[in-house]
Design brief:
The complex is a heterotrimer of chains A (about 130), B (about 160) and C (about 90). Chain A is an all-alpha fold and about 130 residues long. In chain A, about 70% of the residues lie in helices and about 0% in strands. Chain A is built from five helices and no strands. Chain A has helices at about 10-35, 40, 45-70, 75-110, 120-125. Chain A starts with 8 loop residues before the first helix and ends in a 6-residue tail after the last helix. By secondary structure, chain B is mainly alpha-helical. A three-stranded antiparallel beta sheet of chain B has the order 1-3-2. In chain B, strand 2 and strand 3 (about 130-135) form a beta hairpin. In chain C, helix 1 packs antiparallel against helix 2 (about 35-60) and helix 2 (about 35-60) runs antiparallel to helix 3 (about 65-90). Chain C starts with a helix and ends in a 5-residue tail after the last helix. The mean pLDDT of chain C is about 85. Classes of the chains: A mainly alpha (about 130), B mainly alpha (about 160), C mainly alpha (about 90). Chains in contact: A-B, A-C. The interface between A and C is large, with 68 and 59 residues.
Chain lengths: ~130, ~160, ~90
């Protein structure tokens, strides 16, 4: 705890609100990771934390350090931009891999591949199957 | 211009990155950052990335604003779904969307937009048929999603990249 | 007063982010399939990055920012590498 005591009240309140909002949004997203049923639904969940969660916590950090050092501290923008660019790429690659595995597995089981799209995400039905 | 700066956008991003990381806009850092930008741009030519011409900066800004609004809105929607408010019945599903876009950078941008918006997810793009498959967390009306993607995003991306 | 509020909200935010990390870790343990585990890892790394930023605000150290930046980069590289492994590694030999 060094430095925070010197924050003026408005900055402290703003930082606190941003922090709590960001952390709450991130937690809701991560809860979705546990609560949603199939893999393709679960992929939606962490994007909450990487979009709004990151933006709010980076904003809190920006407000806090800008006021403390009485100059514009903007380098948290880098984390926001980095997160906004990298997360969709990682998730798209991951979904591609999952889709490939589903199709390959069904081909192995001798089921019709059809439009090569797992409409019911069959992999999740066989829970507990060792990977 | 093209020989010295093969990728002007990447180079300017590198310069901005350097200045932000050092948190200083002094003459020395601008000089060093320009050096990094020049060298980084030249190194990218080794990878033989197809070059891109981006048009209509006004459309880009409008698209960015729209994507920001959509991200906030769908954050709220997905949060409500995760916490279990609203309708109990929810039908996740795949939607197939016929796309007119063929430019690789436009498709990549569309993939980033769709995936980073909570609630929609880029699954696959069939280049032969031009059919894009997305996964939607709360699928109410298939036609409406097709219209949304095509009107809100693809039209602008077509203007920018083609 | 407002300082006290900030102190407590820092604490609460850290607890919330810790729980979020726990969710990611639980998904890694539960699976059921390899891609779920990779997704859990991705979420965990993003949440850990946010926790580092929060710790940075708490201590007033600028160093945590750099740690968070490195964490974000390594999380991305790790997720893509694992996804590529799933694509090429084991299902079809």
């Amino acid at each position: 705890m060094n430095g925070i005591e010197h924050l003026p009240p408005w900055a402290a309140v703003l930082t606190a609100v941003f922090l709590l909002t960001g952390a709450a949004v991130t937690l809701i997203g991560s809860l979705g990771l546990l609560r949603l049923g199939t893999f393709y639904e679960r992929v939606h969940a962490p994007t909450l934390g990487t979009t709004l969660g990151t933006v709010f916590i980076a904003a809190a950090s920006m407000v806090c350090f800008s006021v403390l050092e009485s100059r514009a501290v903007l380098h948290e923008i880098l984390i926001v931009v980095l997160g906004a660019v990298t997360t969709p790429i990682a998730l798209t690659v991951l979904v591609g891999a999952a889709r490939f595995r589903d199709t390959a597995e069904r081909a192995q089981l001798g089921e019709p591949v059809g439009r090569a799209l797992p409409h019911a995400a069959p992999g999740d039905a066989s829970a507990g199957k060792a990977d | 211009m093209t020989r010295l700066l093969p990728f002007p956008i990447v180079s300017s991003c590198l310069l901005a990155l350097w200045l932000l990381l050092n948190q200083a806009v002094t003459f020395g850092h601008i000089l060093l950052g320009c050096l990094v930008a020049l060298v980084g741009g030249r190194i990218l030519t080794v990878l033989e990335i197809p070059s891109v011409r981006v048009r209509r900066p006004g459309v880009i800004m409008r698209l960015l604003a729209r994507v920001t609004v959509d991200i906030v809105r769908s954050n709220l929607a997905v949060g409500r779904i995760v916490l279990g408010f609203g309708r109990w019945q929810r039908a996740p599903g795949f939607v197939e969307i016929p796309l007119d876009m063929r430019a690789p950078y436009g498709l990549a941008s569309l993939a980033c937009i769709i995936t980073s918006t909570p609630g929609t997810l880029w699954v696959n793009f069939d280049a032969q048929r031009g059919a894009l498959t997305i996964h939607v967390l709360d699928l109410v009306d298939e036609e409406e999603w097709i219209r949304t993607i095509k009107d809100r995003y693809e039209r602008h991306l077509l203007e920018i990249f083609e | 007063m407002s300082q006290l509020m900030l102190t407590y909200s820092l604490l609460v935010a850290q607890v919330l982010l810790g729980l979020a990390i726990g969710c990611g870790a639980l998904r890694i343990f539960l699976g059921p399939r390899a891609q779920d585990r990779v997704l859990g890892f991705d979420t965990l790394s993003v949440n850990a990055m946010l926790l580092l930023l929060t710790v940075g605000i708490r201590t007033g150290e600028a160093l945590y920012f750099e740690a968070a930046l490195a964490m974000a980069l390594f999380g991305f590289v790790g997720t893509v590498a694992l996804a590529k492994f799933l694509l090429r590694g084991e299902v079809i030999e």
